[in-house]
Amino acid sequence: MSETTAPVPSGTVIAESATPRGRRARIALRGLQILLALFYAIASALPKLIAHPTAAEGFDELGWGSVGMYTIGALELAGAIALLIPVLQSVAAMALSALMVGAFVVTITAFDGENAATPLILIVPLALIAWARRSSNADLLRLVRRRA
């Protein structure tokens, strides 16, 4: 059988296979990563890092002030950049998911649930990326062990 007509064996991750379907899945997943990275960098981190009044207002209301705002903004920016680095992509998606869990809890408890759906919606593609790119975790672990 040729590569284009070969069935995908059970247990094979489509996003890593050499079939045309696998290539399309890899391209779609990479596009999703780029889209999320742009969202986190521009729409989420940037307002915090430039102390836009809407961002500052929310953090002041929480009592976290500018330190909290800049910290969250820096974490989001770091996550956005790491989503684009192959060896960090799965870890970045997991870290951003954890940040979104925290954002959900804060919106429920401090802001009466206003916009609480946004972090939950963002967790879905982040979880997909973390799972589909999980092989990069082994690569990262090898790099860390080599340097230790």
Terminal residue distance? 45 Å
Q: Find the count of extended strands (DSSP E, 2+ residues).
A: 0
Q: Rg to the nearest angstrom?
A: 18 Å
- Give the H and E element order: HHHHHH
Helix content estimate: over 70%
Mean pLDDT rating: 90
Provide a count of the helices. Answer: 6
Task: Report on the architecture of this protein.
The radius of gyration is 18 Å and the shape is globular. It starts with 19 loop residues before the first helix and ends with a helix. The longest helix is centred in the N-terminal third of the chain and has 30 residues, at about 20-50. Helix 1 (about 20-50) runs antiparallel to helix 3 (about 65-80), helix 2 packs across helix 3 (about 65-80) and helix 3 packs antiparallel against helix 4 (about 90-110). The chain has helices spanning about 20-50, 55-60, 65-80, 90-110, 115-130, 135-145. About 75% of the residues lie in helices and about 0% in strands. With about 150 residues, the chain is mostly helical. Residues about 1-5 have low confidence and may be disordered.
Keywords, separated by commas or semicolons:
single chain, 148 residues, mainly alpha, globular, disordered N terminus
